[in-house]
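Next comes a single protein record:
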Amino acid sequence: MIRSLTALSLIVLSSAIALGQDSDSIAISRTAKTPLPRADAPPVCARDYRSDSTAGVLVLEVVLEGVTTGSSELLAIKSQIEGSCFDDQSDLIGDAIQAAFSDRGFAQAQVENVTLKVGDRLTVPKPVTVKAEITEGPRFRIGAISFTGNHAFSAARLRAAFLIKKGALFQHSKIASGLKRIRELYTPKGFLDLVFMPDVMFSSTGTVDLTVTIIEGQQYHMGALKIYAKKEISERAASDWNLREGAVFDGNYPQEFVDKSHSLPAEFAGQNVVLVRDCPEATVTVMLVLDQTDPGLQNPPEEVRCKKSNDDGQ
């Protein structure tokens, strides 16, 4: 078996899935209608991977040199990049091109000499033509998918998260989706510190074996609910909150609470919900901050992390 030194490049667009969430704040949003674009509006991104929506580039055309795959398949690969917006960094666009080839079995495809030719520099995002040299390499098919370190879920349950059969053409997107589904299994069970590390092994027979190392971390339970608001709003919000102290902490519940609660003001947003983890106690204190002037915020609860060890990865 040959171990790829760039094994994790096959999940470049979903690397955040494989990491634990270190931020105390969680992304909470309310559903809003998307306004129709004006006639003079800037170009629209079909897919937006930018970290800053006021900058970046819009890929209008992709020119790939050195490819041997058929024209229809090449067109499909290019369509995954064209129309997308990226940060103005050629290596990020190169990663996206590599992922597109990897989605069609070319798991070891190499993308080199990525250049961007800018059109109108005053337009935001800047329209660009991307040029790159490609070495496709052989096509691969899925071999075994195995797991280590898992305790909360069986290997069979985790394997079912990957909607790709053994022997099927290797597809980057289905591997990334499988990793996302693993997190979706663990999140409602209180495993907020979950980390998983995928590793691939390429064989000379054209198969790829995937091993996912699971570091489950602590299973958290609901701690105190602290609401910083006027008494009337605080009482209504507390009445609406159904995740009781001591229950396994469902990491999806805060978003569900915001979506369903009628006690929250219209301006309530992500920065108003803060999760404070106490790893040694295995609890999460939830802070709903509706009044920034509340005296209780002068001495808020502090997060306590578990000490790292070689045994549990914490």
Q: What stands out?
A: Residues 1-23 have pLDDT under 50 and may be disordered. The chain has three domains: 1-31+140-217, 47-137, 221-298. The longest strand covers residues 126-135.
